[in-house]
Write a structure and sequence with these properties.
The chain is mainly alpha-helical. Helices cover 41% and strands 4% of the residues. The chain has a two-stranded antiparallel sheet with strand order 1-2. The protein binds zinc ion.
Length: 157
């Protein structure tokens, strides 16, 4: 069974990018923790670079945090969650609890499915369709990017 990457990509948010309120810092914030495990086929370095970019854009006011968690809808401190580490604009904001349960879903799928069930919406949501087995979003994006490039090349010839 193949995973519907396009559906997931279409359901993720698209944050507006605002004009900076302050001049973005030239140096990216430092990652002070151990390397991350791969997620959705993205490497630790890709995940950390996305975190650095996200921090910089938030600090400069270029992306604005919503007030509520994208899953539970509660007003809590929020952080970025990435399904696609190549596009910060698509990152939902989650509270710590939802974020932890989401990342632990391969080990504890029941806890995750229970959370999703509790926050089921009338409209399709990205979190209702994320897989309980690991997927390779990075590989999918590389594959479609190569296809796009070769299509472009054939048009130019
Ligand atoms: Zn939450």
């Amino acid at each position: 069974m193949s995973y519907d990457y396009e559906l997931l990509l279409s359901l993720l948010p698209r944050h507006k990018i605002y004009w900076p309120k302050t001049t973005p810092k030239v140096a990216l914030p430092q990652w002070r923790w151990p390397p991350l495990k791969p997620y959705n086929g993205f490497t630790s370095d890709e995940r950390i670079m996305n975190w650095q970019l996200g921090r910089m854009l938030l600090d400069a006011g270029m992306i604005r945090k919503p007030k509520t968690c994208d899953i539970c809808g509660e007003v809590k401190p929020l952080g970025f969650h990435s399904e696609n580490y190549h596009c910060i604009r698509m990152d939902p904001f989650l509270c710590k609890d939802c974020h932890r349960i989401l990342h632990q879903r391969f080990r504890y799928p029941d806890k995750w499915l229970e959370l999703v069930d509790r926050h089921q919406q009338m409209v399709p949501t990205w979190y209702a369709i994320i897989s309980v087995v690991p997927i390779d979003m990075a590989g999918y994006l590389k594959m479609i990017s190569k296809r796009g490039y070769s299509n472009q090349k054939s048009v130019q010839q």
